[in-house]
């Protein structure tokens, strides 16, 4: 069993053999030196929490204590979640939520900006709290846990393509 430690940058829990913090992306001192994915000559100081790309000090964008690459720096992050979808079409929002939920990963935000964060149970599944959460005319937003952002975007991309070519 790995031992657990606290990340010196964000305080998140990390295993003591990790090279970087999965919560904030900072690279630890004991990590092997890896070149920046963009600048070959530079050592990296962090990884992007979305895509895992190695980043040097020029490339690393720090947002709310987390490191992101230039491609992913504008993704809206709330707590440990990343925004994947927003719409005033509540029926569509409910469809999208249902589509993303089987892999157990959706948090939603009501029109007042309250985020309903699902609670992870011991089995690593997320509890989907309620089905009837969107109010007509309000902006519904859906979030997934940050490590699942790319996977969720892939599901949404396939869905959008299937709407275009039925
Ligand atoms: Zn950290
Ligand atoms: Zn990235
Ligand atoms: Zn770089």
Characteristics of this structure?
alpha+beta, five-stranded antiparallel beta sheet, two-stranded antiparallel ribbon, elongated, binds zinc ion
Which of globular, elongated, flat, extended, rod-shaped describes the shape? elongated
Low-confidence stretches: 119-132
Query: Strand pairing plus helix content: what structural class?
Result: alpha+beta
Bound molecules: zinc ion
Distance between the termini: 49 Å
What would your notes on this structure say?
- The protein is α+β, with helices and mostly antiparallel strands and 166 residues long.
- It contains 2 helices and 11 strands.
- The protein has a 5-stranded antiparallel β-sheet. It has a two-stranded antiparallel sheet with strand order 1-2.
- About 8% of the residues have low confidence.
- The chain binds zinc ion (3 copies).
- The site of one zinc ion has 8 residues, from loops.
